[in-house]
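Feature request disguised as a bug: please show the residue count (526) next to serine C-palmitoyltransferase in the output. Example input:
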Amino acid sequence: NDHSEEPTPYIEAIVTYISYVLLAVFGHIRDFLRNKGFEANMIATEPDRTKSFVPLYQNFESFFTRNLYRRIRDCWNRPITTCPGAEFEVMDRDSPDYGWTFRYPGSTTRAVNFGSYNYLGFAESSGYCADAAVAATEMYGCGVGSSRTEVGSLNIHTQLERAMAEYLGTEDAIVFPMGFATNALNMAALVGKGCCILSDELNHSSLVLGSRLTGATIKIFKHNNPADLEAKLREAIVYGQARTRRPFTKILIVVEGVYSMEGSIVRLPEIIALKKRYQAYLYLDEAHSIGALGASGRGVVDYYGCDPRDVDVLMGTFTKSFGGAGGYIAGSSRLVQHVRQSSHSAIYGASMPAPVAAQILTALSILLGRAGPPDEGKRRLRQLSVNAQYMRARLHQLGLIVYGDRDSPVVPFMIFMPGKVAAFARLSLAHGLGIVVVGYPATPIIEARARICLSAAHSLDMIDRSVQVIDKLSRLLRIRYSRRQPPDWTRDRTRAWAEAQLAEFSRPLAPTHVASSANGVALIGA
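Example output, currently without the count:
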């Protein structure tokens, strides 16, 4: 995988800790001034009738939000006025009171969008997918207001489930209208009390919540570390359940395909080998890898050339590579039938809106070569792969500490200090880059970072212009912390290499339109 991860330099770690200590000291001083009336207190307070209730937030969470996050919250939750494609328009705003409120002058800033998980570029306001969504809206409406088990199951849902099963190489699949809930509300149908869940320490919060709702025993293993996973497997098998020491009825390993904060790719072949050796089950969340990895875009299973049948539960979302919403669970017919009959989300949850299903179904058809210009799916997959490697190589060459694997479409680089995080976010937008910055509590307190999400919609020219801006800002802010030489593979990832990789698809694309059937629904496949 050519994985890259460099430890935090000691000096930067110490300075980062000192920065947070100073911010905390000034925060306590300002709280004191607010309580004594020397400074306007704009903090939301509890009504008298609810003061006896359990507080929604811990004291430190509230303190952190109002004294640290508030001062720089203009760096996040930025409203946009256009489709989140390769570029977007960000609404300009300023704050007269240091982040308590915002004013909007009515102007916008155009920026390259490196903040959306639009891996294959299907987040478009025109083209095949948009036309299919419009046609589905005209026929079915925006929603049915019912669950699948009652009157909310449409033929387009069945088509989508069959298409996903075919695409993934599984026997069956079931789709849900919300990606987060696909994990959080369905895991309880798979495991329960008397079972053991072995979860990667960096798993998404939806997996954490879903694991807790099962009532199973949860054990954490080090991130992407098969050796530690094996130790936890042995421990679970040898010692069994707490107090009774009875063996666990089921052991479920829960991992992600691509970790969106680290840019790392799961070491799937080794985990599958452990799963088989110790007769455990494997739950794979492909939210960030489906459509983004593999020669055919089938995710991390395709990327490593593994057999989909070796993964017991394949889960993924449609919100990223497919430009839609919702999620899926795929696997054996027995598994999917069990989820349909046992999961509260499947029984009581609202069904997916037809326009969303049409968007996803059309994107799938393009990837399968059944819609769109010839080889359009292959072109997008190749463009994303080239963009990811080219951008990662350029950032390594700048001397930044870059995390993740070579082929990951998520490229984080480290900033560390909170003041530099805010400065980079503001200056990058002023120079036309929409880059996400991430800090505590989403990351460890000394590992704040910027995170670039590549898309097939990005051109090489966009990447070159963006690297020039990052080069300028990294010099200004002194964030070239790397003490290592760039990895060997970065030497040949030049602009000429990237153009050569894309030469096969350099011909002009056909006009985007979609054929429609007599009833107004887009024809998305055979």
